[in-house]
Amino acid sequence: MTDQTFDAFIVEETEDNRYSGCVRQTRVSGLPEGDVLVRVQYSALNYKDALSATGNKGITRNYPHTPGIDAAGTVVDSRTQDFSPGDKVIVTSYDLGMNTAGGFGQYIRVPAGWVVPLPDGLTLEESMILGTAGFTAGLSIEKIVDIPVDAGPVLVTGATGGVGSLAVAVLSKLGYDVTAVSGKTETGFLKTLGASEIISRQAFVENTKPPILPAKWAAVVDTVGGDILASAIKSTQAWGKVTCCGLVASPDLPLTVFPFILRGVSLHGIDSQHYPIGPRQALWKKLAQDWKPKKLAEMAIRITLDQLPPAIDNMLKGRLRGRTVVNLR
After folding, report:
1. How far apart are the C-alpha atoms of 253 and 231, rounded to whole Å?
2. Structural domain span for residue 224
3. Where residue 2 falls among pLDDT bands split at 50, 70, 90?
């Protein structure tokens, strides 16, 4: 098996300090050491992958490199009794696709502690429509799901992105009244997912200089950070909960402590990368069953490895919506 060749999207640093990626043949013997060898059938494009593919050293230190922080496929070989050849599995988070060869290759080899059995209720393709984005949305929803559905609207920012769109879909299925914030003008997609109201990003951050704003949101799932997160916190109801998982707008938070000490608002950071494997498996089961979006299949476009370069460019320019699944079969 070590002489097996396979297709992988490999990013290299060129002589002029630029980065370019293309599909090339590589060998299983070149994969890092690990307990479980997986034949990848599906992956998904995430913002971290786009950064890795364009030379962001904060994500990936060394090149040549195969990005892909999401992978789903079938176990080919295992050094642990926890997995056997033929098992269908999901691998996301930890170091996959960052400094370990990732899901944009037809094979990965990883530690057993990174591997989750595919739960009943999901196909391998569906698991990648969810992927890291769906898992992050799920972690956010776990923080706020004890808030009654009749407490008021729940706000989701960056709602057309991967995490945001899946958060809208899951929250809507659970019965929440969801308001979506988006920078895109087309609203039909979010309405289809269950958003009852859509606010433009520009309108949301207008007239938000006061240290506290009229209370509106029972809870917030924020995926972008910056002024949008600050505005969301300022306008959250008393004892409301806000989750934070992104910084595409800005890592800065221009805010006073007033929402926290006058309304008891709580802010929860979401880290999906290092979430422990036991609770990780439990959350995947929720996403496969009670929390599975009704129109999951409609939330993704499908591409092949050789279609990654334009998709990566579109992601970095904010032109994508929902999820982009990569078929490696």
Report:
1. 10
2. 132-269
3. low
Contact predicate 226/205, CB 8 Å: no
- Domain assignment present for residue 277? The answer is no
Q: What is the DSSP string of 215-273?
A: --EEEEEESSBHHHHHHHHHTEEEEEEEEE---SSBS-----SHHHHHS--EEEE---T
* Number of separate domains in the chain: 2
Residue 1 pLDDT grade (very low, low, confident, very high; cuts 50, 70, 90): low
pLDDT at 292: 98
* CB-based contact 105:38 (threshold 8 Å): no
Same domain, yes or no: 143 and 112: no
Q: Residue 276 burial (CB < 10 Å; 0-12/13-18/19+)?
A: exposed
Q: What is the pLDDT of residue 225?
A: 96
DSSP reduced 3-state for 16? coil
pTM, 2 dp: 0.95
Same domain, 162 and 219: yes
Domain-located, residue 41: yes
* CA-wise closest residue to 54 among 15, 21, 94: 21
pLDDT at res. 208 = 80
> Looking at residue 186, what is its pLDDT?
73
Closest C-alpha to 267, from 283, 251, 245, 248: 245
Residue pair 45/141 in contact by the 8 Å Cβ criterion = no
We report the CATH number of the domain holding residue 184 as: 3.40.50.720
